[in-house]
Specification:
By secondary structure, the protein is an alpha/beta fold. The chain contains seven helices and eleven strands. The strands form three sheets. It has a five-stranded parallel sheet with strand order 2-1-3-4-5, sandwiched between helices.
Amino acid sequence: MANILAVDDDVAILDMIGAILGKDGHMVTKVGDPTQLNMEKINQYDLILLDIMMPGIDGFELCTRIRDIVDCPILFITAKTEENSLVNGLALGADDYICKPFGVMELRARISAHLRRERREHVARLVVGRICFNLAEKQMMIDDDRITLTKGEYEICEFLAKHRGQVFSKEQILENVFGYDNESNDNTITTHIKNIRMKLSNYDYMPIKTVWGIGYKWTE
């Protein structure tokens, strides 16, 4: 199951997309007015469908706005078949396009193909906000810059990022990251997180938040 965003000012098209993809078990968020799109939640989607011709803000402009903050496939839904328009759209960061009118099987097949490819590409990496984890090489990147972390610092970041939004006490982080038999204590976690924050301070970005009296959580 995937979390899919569909943006189109045509309610009938939105309803059709929701019905078709819903039968495959996907959760479809339908937005009829692109100016009302909640940009704070835009990176929660696994795939985004954008109509090109919309009032207020067209699909090309919307794609430009969100491409830098989302890492998922973006597909245009378009009635325009002019080659230049489609080429321009792909140049803005879109991954593919579906021309109206489209059939049920075509929509399902194209969506499934992009989701399968995306899952394969993300097996060895985790992208959360501006942070990208290379899970195989145990590296953390921010804005394409590699952050030099100790093994402990990296493991804490990866653990919290994989469980983003959940609050963990220092004891829980210690047990999950370093194991029950580790001789370290709670102060080790405090020191590691202090060092992580220092290393990210130059980027004006800190996804690890302190929840006073409880512990820490990864917020994005």
